[in-house]
Predict the 3D structure of the following.
Amino acid sequence: MAVGQEILYVFPDSVERILEQHLSKYSLNNDKERVYLDLARNDKFYRLTIGTYFVDRDDDVTRWIKASNRLGLVNTKKYPLLIDVDFDFGAPEETALGTFGKREGKVKRTRVLMHGVSVKFSKNGAILKE
């Protein structure tokens, strides 16, 4: 599949309404700042967090967002979507991959400390924590 084709994620109505409430009030600091969504899950719940990035920066999050075709739909707007495995297995620097059979310790791993609004929910949309 080409990166130009979108993979659109549609969240449960209860989750989408909460995200819309927060996103409609979101204040960005300048014209280069944008919103993205971060989706994580474990065996008990999902967590969606609203994050921001700057389109003119060359950092890991911005590169992954620009390379990704995943989008989260909230009302009528589409927001870039990163998922937890991007941070577990994504290689933010293509030049630092190591060689076959000897990659461990060569690939840069990244974690992002999220400060935005989060909503925890079950697969059927029951809100566990806002």
Summary: The chain has one domain: 7-83+115-129. Residues 7-83+115-129 form one domain.
